[in-house]
């Protein structure tokens, strides 16, 4: 089974069968959401994604299992996500981008794919430069987004993948992940991997000839007639 993280494109987004493909909670404010006709939600969401890709650049990652998309994350500056204003812990910090959606198909949860998506997001933002952190609104308790009031990633998941509480709240805490810490974490992991490989596959130095010790000639192979 192959697993990899790739850039979220319109084609890959179209292949996803996530229920949040047609959700416009983040993309539109409540007034504009109410004006969208039934059946046009997915088209509106794809138009939003296309606009962010054009104006800001890469804004998501998708995880592929055997080349089939089974999960994705979306992130963008807060200016592109007016739905964030409905959270009691808004706005996010000026030096951060907002993680809005984090979804993995139920059949593939618990296998580390969510962590792969967050790491792919962090790598993208680090390479882009100029962004210090990622923030997200956590889903906490029975009164929050689990029951449809808000679309937010579970607080426990965010904590497991490196986010820390930045502003506490009983149902919608705001969490933050410093990208500098993500860089340091990645370097530590890569260093540990190199050390592990060094133990498993140590380099064998070439033998050194000792002065004054005559070399023993190798035995000559003789062909035996009839063999």
Kindly identify the CATH topology.
Aminopeptidase
Question: How many structurally independent domains?
Answer: 1
Please outline the major beta sheet.
Answer: 8 strands, mixed
Number of strands: 8
Q: What is the CATH architecture annotation?
A: 3-Layer(aba) Sandwich
CATH class: Alpha Beta
Amino- and carboxy-terminal Cα gap: 50 Å
Gyration radius from CA atoms, angstroms: 26 Å
The run of helices and strands is EHHHEEEHEEHEEH
Gross morphology: globular
- What is the strand content? 15-25%
> Are there runs of 5+ residues with pLDDT below 50, and where?
218-227
CATH superfamily: Gcn5-related N-acetyltransferase (GNAT)
What is the count of helical runs?
6
Q: How helical, in percent, are the residues?
A: 25-40%
Question: How confident overall, as mean pLDDT?
Answer: 83
**Structural class assignment:** alpha+beta
Question: What layout of secondary structure does this protein have?
Answer:
Elements lengths: L2 E5 L2 H6 L14 H6 L5 H15 L4 E6 L2 E9 L19 E9 L8 H16 L4 E7 L13 E2 H6 L3 E4 L6 E5 H22 L27
Parallel strand pairs: 4-5, 5-6
Antiparallel strand pairs: 1-2, 2-3, 3-4, 5-8, 7-8
Helix pairs in contact: 4-6
